[in-house]
Amino acid sequence: MNRYTLLAPIYDLVSFEWPIYRPGRLAAIDALGLQPGQTVLVVGCGTGLSMPLLASRLGLSGHILGVDATQLTAADLPADIGQIDAVLFAYSLSLMNPWMAAWSATTDRTSTPAPGACSSGPAPMWRV
Fold it and tell me: What's the predicted TM-score (pTM) here?
């Protein structure tokens, strides 16, 4: 059992989400330019802190697919996971080693080129 699995029950309370990580999470989600009805793949979804923020942008017709290392890895995804409109790595890509292999394993499995956004600290964020 890894440390994230052990911390999951209390992670939201001790993660400093609101004062530190929320701005970067919001910036990454905003950078995706999501529209209602789209589908987002969240790699490293953890306890789901990004899910309500994504749901508010995607509406009732949108879909969120979340995967986490405590359950499976991007390499374990099926060869084609279907129509994915965007990929989000919120504070997760920097924990994957090697990170570029995780990025490639994920984006190679989307059926169309999907924009991706990554937040890796309280401020840095990039979009591809």
Answer: 0.76
Residue type, 40: V
First to last CA, the chain: 33
Q: Taking Cα atoms as reference points, which of 55, 33, 34, 41 lies closest to residue 90?
A: 41
Strand order in the sheet with 116-119: 63-67, 39-43, 86-90, 116-119, 125-127
Average pLDDT over residues 60-89: 74
For 35, what's the count of Cα atoms within 13 Å in the CB-facing half-sphere? 3
106 by DSSP, 3-state: which? helix
Task: Decide if 109 contacts 73 (C-beta within 8 A).
Answer: no
